[in-house]
Write a structure and sequence with these properties.
Layout (H helix, E strand, L loop, with lengths): L4 E12 L2 E12 L3 E5 L6 H8 L7 E6 L2 E3 L4 H6 L2 E4 L11 H5 L6 E2 L3 E2 L1 H15 L14 H14 L4 E5 L7 H16 L3 E5 L3 H7 L2 E6 L2 E7 L5 H9 L17 E10 L3 E9 L3 E6 L5 H8 L7 E6 L2 E3 L4 H6 L2 E4 L3 H5 L6 H6 L7 E2 L2 E2 L2 H14 L16 H13 L5 E5 L7 H16 L3 E5 L3 H7 L2 E6 L2 E7 L5 H8 L4
Parallel strand pairs: 3-10, 3-11, 6-9, 9-10, 15-22, 15-23, 18-21, 21-22
Antiparallel strand pairs: 1-2, 1-4, 4-5, 7-8, 11-12, 13-14, 13-16, 16-17, 19-20, 23-24
The structure holds adenosine-5'-triphosphate and magnesium ion (MG).
Adenosine-5'-triphosphate binds next to strand 2, helix 1 and helix 14.
Length: 498
């Protein structure tokens, strides 16, 4: 007999101006199961889940919850029906505490007027402890790393005691250890009969945690299968509609002279005595676990937060980089980990964002280049990176998460920086576009540029780097050549067990 579905979404369509995001999409989810929802960037995964979460209405289609047809016109209605959601974009309020964020909108009322902080903190402490998350609920969200914020979002979604939890790329900011921890949390949930809808571009995760997989393409339902019936290649071909064989297109480039030398760079409490060299034409991988200090080193290098001591040489000359504009003048570009906070102007168009870091390039003889040439350049970038948007005039906030990341890459690829720092460059990017970005990195170094790539995905580090340095708790713990690098070696450096 067919098992009862806890949730059926049937024939869902939804359009935005110029974009049909969903046409006849759907998913059928069983109680107590983990159901992966997969598809390329812009396939419509988040849109389908936002409809379920009451954030957006569908144009047509049906939602059947435990046999009853329902429709939600707000997130609170969806929550009342025991559906909660971890959003792809972090939604916390920075100047509130962890506990305030978790219980936002449902504070325990004391005397029906004020929220009693002590109660809320106690509840939050119990919740976080129960989930094994070691974060003090009394501290403000701004003080957390992105990874910690993501853990709080996870805890918040779980705290509603829902029957269905939607996780839209829950691991985009966390590394192996926290991912294992999330799996444990998920297994505990499914044991209690909770259904989890899990969106991720990381195939490893899908094979680790999913029971079933639904694939979407271009807003349409493609297929649903049990995980045992699928190989990685099956999922990839269902997603992209073609075979994709060349996963890490590393090009061999002659490595030249040093272009960047970092000597004993130290920032109190963050990192200590960091020394490394980057050569012309080289892709240097920077591996490590969350909180190892990798991003912090790059922030200091780029002049965003000053280091306390140490020396930086660019092309053999000592430099004193005190701001992002100093960094740019010295030929550095930094594609940041958190595209929302530091990388993109969301209310602005794709075009404005793409040209934002290289405006001087568009000024010829003191006159801003004509609209047509600017458009041409942006159209080229759109094509090159396959940015899915109806026009380059579209606001970035209306793009899917992965396509926002591509805009950010386009922006920095246009600058004529020689040293390009990429912090988690393919986070949230689908497999097809990922290999295109990797190919592009190859193109960059072929033209004599150099790349530092921070990545928490070991296959990416192993596949793309010429040389790999590893950080653990603010210190450099290892350096390996491409030939000698293996997952095990990197993990032991990253966990400080060598
Ligand atoms: N508010 C909006 N206005 C206009 N277009 C939108 C809006 N929200 C989504 N879209 C478009 O709908 C399509 C589907 O987007 P969606 O965010 O659902 O993709 P996704 O599968 O979640 O992709 P990703 O893997 O990149 O997160 C995209 O083309 C996107 O640009
Ligand atoms: Mg999405």
């Amino acid at each position: 007999m067919e098992e009862q579905y806890i949730l059926e979404m049937v024939d869902i369509s939804k359009s935005f101006p110029g974009v049909q995001a969903l046409k006849g999409a759907g998913i059928k989810v069983r109680k107590g199961s983990v159901h992966a929802l997969m598809g390329e960037n812009g396939a419509g995964k988040s849109t389908l889940m936002k409809i379920l979460g009451g954030l957006q209405p569908a144009d047509s289609g049906k939602i059947i919850l435990k046999g009853q047809e329902v429709s939600f016109s707000s997130p609170s209605e969806s929550l009342k029906n025991k559906i909660s959601m971890i959003h792809q974009e972090l939604t916390s309020i920075p100047h509130m505490t962890v506990a305030e964020n978790i219980y936002l909108g449902r504070e325990p009322l004391a005397g029906k007027v004020f929220v009693k902080d002590s109660d809320q903190n106690a509840r939050a402490t119990e919740l976080l402890q129960g989930l094994g998350i070691q974060i003090d609920p009394k501290i403000k969200m701004v003080r957390l790393s992105i990874a910690q914020m993501q853990l709080i979002e996870i805890a918040k979604a779980i705290s509603y005691n829902s029957e269905i939890i939607i996780m839209d790329e829950p691991t985009s900011a966390i590394t192996e250890r926290e991912v294992e921890h999330l799996y444990t949390m998920i297994r505990n949930l499914t044991k209690k009969g909770v259904a989890v809808i899990y969106i991720s571009h990381k195939l490893n995760e899908i094979f680790n945690i999913a029971d079933e997989v639904t694939v979407m393409r271009d807003g349409e339902y493609v297929n649903t299968k049990k995980i045992e019936e699928l190989t990685r290649q099956d999922i990839i071909s269902m997603m992209v509609g073609r075979e994709l064989t060349h996963m890490f297109p590393k090009v061999e480039v002659e490595i030249g002279e040093p272009v960047l030398e970092v000597k004993n760079l130290t920032r109190a409490g963050k990192f200590n005595n960091i020394s490394f060299t980057l050569h012309k034409g080289e892709i240097l991988g920077l591996a490590g676990l969350m909180g190892a200090g990798r991003t912090e080193v790059m922030e200091s290098l780029f002049g965003l937060v000053p280091a306390n001591s140490g020396e930086v040489l660019i092309k053999g000359k000592p430099v004193n980089i005190k701001s992002a504009s100093d960094a740019k003048k010295n030929g550095l570009a930094f594609i940041t980990e958190d595209r929302k906070l530091t990388g993109l102007f969301l209310p602005h168009s794709v075009k404005d964002n793409i040209i934002a870091a290289s405006l001087d390039r568009f000024v010829v003889g003191g006159i801003f280049m004509n609209e047509k040439s600017v458009n041409g350049i942006c159209e080229d970038q759109k094509k090159l990176l396959r940015i899915k948007t109806p026009t380059i005039e579209q606001k970035v906030k209306n793009l899917s998460g992965g396509n926002q990341q591509k805009v950010l890459l386009a922006k920095w690829l246009l600058t004529d920086a020689d040293i390009i720092i990429l912090d988690e460059p393919t986070r949230g990017i689908d497999v097809g576009a990922k290999s295109e970005i990797h190919a592009l990195m190859g193109e960059l170094v072929k033209t004599g540029k150099s790349v530092i790539m921070i990545s928490s995905e070991l296959p990416e580090i192993l596949g793309m780097s010429d040389r790999i340095i590893v950080m653990h708790e603010g210190k450099l713990t290892g350096e390996v050549s491409r030939q000698d690098a293996t997952q095990d070696v990197l993990m032991s450096f990253a966990t400080g067990t060598i």
